[in-house]
Amino acid sequence: MTKDKTVAVVGAGLAGSLLTCYLARRGYTVTMYERRPDPRTGKVERGRSINLALSERGLDALRRIGLDRSVMADALPMRGRMIHPVEGEPGFQPYSSDGERAINSISRGALNNALLEAATALPNVTAYFDHRLTGLDPKTGAMTFSVDGREETAQADVVIGTDGFSSAVRGQLLAHTGLTESLDFLEHGYKELTIPARDGEFAMDPGALHIWPRGASMMIALPNPDRSFTCTLFWPTGGTNAFASLSSPAAIEKHFAAVYPDVIELAPNLVDDYLHNPVGVLGTVRCSPWHAYGRVGLLGDAAHAIVPFYGQGANCAFEDVVELDRILDETGDDWDRALPEFEARRRENTEAIARMALDNFVEMRDKVASPVFQAQKKVEHA
Ligand code: FAD
Fold first, then answer.
1. By alpha-carbon position, which residue is closest to atom 14 of ligand 1?
2. By the number of CB atoms within 10 A of the CB, which of 67, 118, 222, 277 ranks highest?
3. How many angstroms separate the alpha carbon of residue 301 from the centre of ligand 1?
């Protein structure tokens, strides 16, 4: 049944496109506004990560609306982590004692495109790309967008900000309501590097999440369907600015030969990747409240971005969508009650995963390589 309220979803990333599917299925007329060009046209801006780990929490949200099979068609299950020491052979640590439980490596772009495709196939959805939200009156739902340098206006009964870490909707709530926020940037940033396929095959085991724990720095690699791996190197960007310390091909090769010796042979484009790929920032967003006037809300990274070391940011955003949908069921689509209830139910969980993600950075870069930890794992899995 068509609902009389109109909803604007600002940000058509992972959370926004999934949320649009759910709200349109409830009968809302939904308009999505996205700052970037339509990623399905191929004009893709360099993303925050090429692939990501999708676990049961995220899959559940896709399964509920029948999107899991299509999205998972190209996913690669990773049943444990492969630890690469500086010297010696890599060692595999399974995620479960039976070795069967897995997290899935999935292309961020393919996932976003599949969700956009599903959302825009619904008759009550309109999507506007190249629309950057620049203003919002939370009392009335009046919005302003920058479109090709022009200013356009729009209005909706309900506005949900799914516009990520640097959310403009959150910025408008900060300017016009009592919202307070804290952004804690991590000293470490990240850079992506590639291990291409070798003779048409994966150059390492595709059934594992690969980790090179090195204390001050760390690298991970996830497999891609084209048999390449995307590596993410985490290193301090602050005062020491470690990334900038390697500015010549010789310095890059020397550093990797000493710290990541097996990668030198696996990554023939290492120097080029290193010199040309950008350094991304990482951090935790905490803000309160996530809503205003019963008509504006925040969801996903816009409300609670976390560092990526538990691989749960997108999974958590998908869980948000399921919870909001459940609360709309329970409240009979009363947004005045639903938005505060959504925050009440999700805050504790999102604060917990934010802390766990920070803790897991220490475990991934240090403890997984320690003999004590490996002995403990053997006992657990015996
Ligand atoms: P985003 O994906 O950031 O989407 C926000 C959208 O809003 C974007 O499309 C953006 O263009 C748009 N937008 C921004 N501003 C405006 C504006 N003013 N107007 C209109 N549109 C706007 N999570 C996992 O679950 N597993 C992983 O393995 C994982 N790995 C990660 C690795 C790295 C290196 C990083 C950085 C993150 C990782 N994450 C992972 C986290 C995950 O990427 C985020 O949690 C997830 O993308 C959040 O989705 P979102 O839709 O809330 O925000």
1. 163
2. 222
3. 6
DSSP state of 198: B
**Cβ count within 10 A of residue 56:** 12
Nearest to 196 by CA among 226, 161, 216, 157: 226
- pLDDT per residue as tens digits for the range 91-149: 999 999 998 899 999 999 999 999 999 999 999 999 999 999 999 999 999 999 999 99
Are 57 and 317 in contact by the 8 Å Cβ rule? The answer is: no
Ligand 1 mean position, distance from CA 163 (Å): 8
Which is the closest atom of ligand 1 to the Cα of 58? 25
ipTM of the prediction greater than 0.90, yes or no: yes
Distances (CA, A) of 50 to 45, 222, 231, 245: 11, 9, 9, 25
- CA pair distance 372, 93, nearest whole angstrom: 14
Asked if residues 23 and 176 have their Cβ atoms less than 8 Å apart, the reply is no
190: part of which helix (H) or strand (E)? strand 188-195
Pocket of ligand 1 (CB under 6 A): 10-16, 33-36, 48-49, 52-53, 132-133, 162-165, 168, 190, 232, 280, 300-302, 308, 311-315, 317
Six-digit token string for 117: 């495709």
